[in-house]
Amino acid sequence: MASGDDSPIFEDDESPPYSLEKMTDLVAVWDVALSDGVHKIEFEHGTTSGKRVVYVDGKEEIRKEWMFKLVGKETFYVGAAKTKATINIDAISGFAYEYTLEINGRSLKKYMENRSKTTNTWILHMDGENFRVVLEKDTMDVWCNGKKMETAGEFVDDGTETHFSIGNHDCYIKAVSSGKRKEGIIHTLIVDNREIPETAVNEF
């Protein structure tokens, strides 16, 4: 950095929820996709001070100073559905540590693999805004941009339709059998009578 340059790192009016100076012990960052959105989990571990700090979406959830035991775990909750998350701290060798994140008792990788089987996600761009629509297949709950939607289910000739609205747009998720046991039920999002491909940005 040039000497005499006192300008802040963040030049826009909106400063971050925490300063970079405080994040010197940052050892791990994870992005966790839940039905209500993608959440950023950050973990600080001071191996000399024993400090442990957990941030979820920039907000401090746990702060412990002067922990004499440097290994262990920290459990907290993420998102609107209060999903249980645990950071495991394990010593590898000497003063090297490994940090792993579990969601609902499963490794993040296993949780996300299972989640891809139990949810469908669509990203839409309508009226100048982005919308992330998530269907939880086991409950048929529909989430949009972090909010659980009011829905109405309806039986139709070839399956079911789950109706909801985004602004003044009529939406429904159609569930029909694929006719193949391995594929199971196929879920399709329809917005204003137009089929939306899964996880692609669509302009309206």
TrEMBL record:
* Cell compartment(s), UniProt: Cytoplasm
Entry's Gene Ontology BP terms:
apoptotic process; negative regulation of extrinsic apoptotic signaling pathway via death domain receptors
InterPro entries, per database record: FAIM1, FAIM1_dom_sf
What is the top-level taxon of the source organism? Eukaryota
Signal peptide range in chain numbering: none
Q: Name one GO cellular component term.
A: cytoplasm
What are the entry keywords?
A: Apoptosis, Cytoplasm
The family annotation for this protein states: Belongs to the FAIM1 family.
State the protein's purpose: Plays a role as an inducible effector molecule that mediates Fas resistance produced by surface Ig engagement in B cells.
Q: What is this protein called?
A: Fas apoptotic inhibitory molecule 1
Protein species of origin: Aotus nancymaae (Ma's night monkey)
